[in-house]
Amino acid sequence: MNDRQREYERLIAPIEDRMMGAVWRISGDPNDAEDAFQEALLTVWKRWDRIVKHPNPHALILHICVNAAHDVLRRRVRQRRWIEEDAAAADVPDSSSSAIQDMCGAEQRAQVLRAIGLLPKNQGRAILMHAVEGAGYVEIAAALACREVTVRKHVARARARLRTLLAHLMPAVHKEETSNA
Amino acid sequence: MPDKETSNDVDELIRRRMQVEVPVEVEDRLRRRLTEFRARVEQRPPNRFRMAYSLMHQPALRTVGMAAALLLAATVGLLFIPRESRASQVFAAAAAQLRSAPSLEYTIVLNAVPYVAVDFSYLAPSYRRLNCSWGIEVRTDGATGKQIVLMHATRTYLTEGGKQVESQANADAFAEQLRSLPRAADEVLGEQWTGKKKLLGYRLRKAPPNGSIPGLKELDIWIDPGTQEADHVDITVQEQGKPAHQMHIQNIRVGAAVDRALFDLTPPAGYTAIAIPGGDRRSGDPAPVLDSLALRAQIGQGAALTAVVMPMQGSYAQTRSALQAVESYLKARGVTPAGPPFGRYESEQHWEAGYAVPPGTRVEAPFQLISLPRALTASAVVNGAWAKDSNPRWAAFLKSVVEQGYLPAGPPMEIWTGDDAQPARQSTEMRIPVAKATE
Q1: Chain A interface test: which of B30, B37, B42, B53 (most A C-beta within 10 Å)
Q2: Which of A128, A153, B363, B376 could make an S-S bridge to B367, C-beta 3.0–4.6 Å?
Q3: Is there a domain that residue B49 lies in?
Q4: Cα distance between residue A101 and residue A103, in whole Å
Q5: Residue-wise pLDDT tens for chain B (439 aa)?
Q6: Which residues of chain B have a Cβ shorter than 8 Å from any chain A Cβ?
Q7: Of B16, B31, B42, the CB nearest to A4
Q8: Do B13 and A166 touch (CB under 8 A)?
């Protein structure tokens, strides 16, 4: 095993699933996910020597994946492709209870993604890293190369904006939590 | 905390809605990308800089490397920093030098032909000295407000206690102008070569708030970028209703050692003192002969004068021989003098004697044709032998000028009329350009 193989085993292999999951969850579309993943891998390739020396390379790589997926998401929001997808989803002829639930879940996920796609770049990236990938503020700050307090500000502002944009979905969370309990 | 609860609600909503498994077909596609990526990583060539980087971890080599990098950065900076930016730095440095210099010397050239100039010296905290080419020297101590005016040509001095005189005020304006340049110029004029020296030019279009010269239109300052010192300054002045004119400040010396004796307010030996009423009499007693000479200077617009003169230097006793030379020259050329002979004395190093002639008269060296413009002039006529009581009558004449609120503004002249052979029928007109003294 040469140096490069060892580096790959150390840096990428342990987080392959997390990388794919992050890209898929944020992009939400097979083609977009592949594009975003390809973009992320290209960035990792370009920054390989820096990533090797980074104190928290896994956080940095996940951050790169989140960024790439978030860029795709923002692009899609700007291009209003959501309208077509919403229309296609509404055409699905299935009236079973689980199908309706799936459809509602898919629709709500689309709304969440759309709202995140509307956020400014740094806010969107910070909230995705924090809420979706479960990264701590310190970890995100290291990946973003900024101060922890800055990350906290981005997250707080993103939450405030999302609270407004997704106000109609907020009771649903409580309801689901209650029914699960 | 409700805020935190709401925040958690938002996070929870995002987490729940986005907690989805990667579909198998999507995972297949992404894994194919990963496999390609892994192959590329494994074939990635070693970093060309890695060896250098690992060497840099050794402290000694890191120091050397940092020094080399700094040198490279400085070189690149010098080559690629915009010229404008570097030029601005040169101006700022020169302005700062002028502001903080403990001494400042320069020559203000008011007119190149004939040469009319003022040598100015400043010594912190407030000593100033003007040495005019027409034979007047003004020394001032700004802290005490004391001032003496030395008349080189006539060997007299005036004392002026606590009063600003116009010439001093103007010179102060120049000095303050130079000592209060702004941090940035309005315009960069570019490069100028004087011999082998490169100068950078800057233009100021508006006077700085302090020490502004009345009517200042433009001030061009030329700076040696090597020493960051001002080399010379060209000033364009245009006062309302008057034509624009240029003045030049040359021989600028910033922070050089200046002889303190130049600012000594004790009248030098060989001068006759004239105390100005209300002035500081401690500097010396007025000569008693003044009271016996009842002279009153007449102030008025003097006529323009065109004359052929013999430039002279040294003893004023050469006046007669100089006049004879001019007279012979004019006679040989068939030119009839348009007025009586006169002598004009800027200093012992530079004076002249000659005759008024019609305008347009052509002359050859060593003679010169001079044209004196119409100007405010003080004059008085004294009857008697031309050479009699020269110093006391000039002292009395200047006292009368000052008493009337004027100060000398140019070299003194004597115009002689009468018969050379009959001293009792001779008369002398004393004449000097003057300017109104400011309170």
Answers
A1: B30
A2: B363
A3: no
A4: 5
A5: 334 444 577 888 888 777 778 888 889 989 988 888 888 887 776 665 554 555 555 566 667 767 777 887 777 666 665 555 677 888 888 888 888 888 889 888 876 666 677 888 888 777 888 887 777 788 887 777 777 778 776 677 776 544 444 445 556 667 777 777 887 888 888 888 887 788 999 988 765 544 466 677 888 999 998 888 899 998 887 777 777 777 788 889 988 888 888 888 887 777 777 655 444 444 444 444 444 456 788 999 888 889 999 998 877 778 888 898 999 999 888 888 888 999 988 777 778 899 999 888 888 888 988 888 888 999 998 888 887 777 777 877 887 887 787 877 788 889 998 887 888 888 889 998 888 765 4
A6: 6-7, 9-20, 22-23, 25-27, 29-31, 33-34, 37-38, 40-44, 46-47, 50
A7: B42
A8: yes
Q: Can you give the CATH number for the domain in which B321 is found?
A: 3.20.80.10
- With an 8 Å Cβ cutoff, are A112 and B41 in contact? no
- B270 located within any domain: no
Same domain, B229 and B336: no
Q: Is residue B409 part of a domain?
A: yes
Do B354 and B326 contact (CB within 8 A), yes or no?
yes
Domain boundary among the residues B230, B247, B263 is at B263
Tally of CB atoms within 10 A around A153: 15
Do B354 and B417 lie in a common domain? yes
Whether B375 and B116 have beta carbons less than 8 Å apart is answered as no
3-class SS of residue B189: strand
Please state the domain count of chain A. Answer: 1
ipTM value = 0.78
Based on the structure, what is the number of domains in chain B?
A: 2
Q: What is the pTM of this model?
A: 0.44
How far is residue A144's CA from residue B343's CA, in Å, rounded to a whole number? 87
B177 in a structural domain: yes
Nearest residue in B to A108, CA atom = B17
Q: How far is B172 from chain A (nearest CA, A)?
A: 55
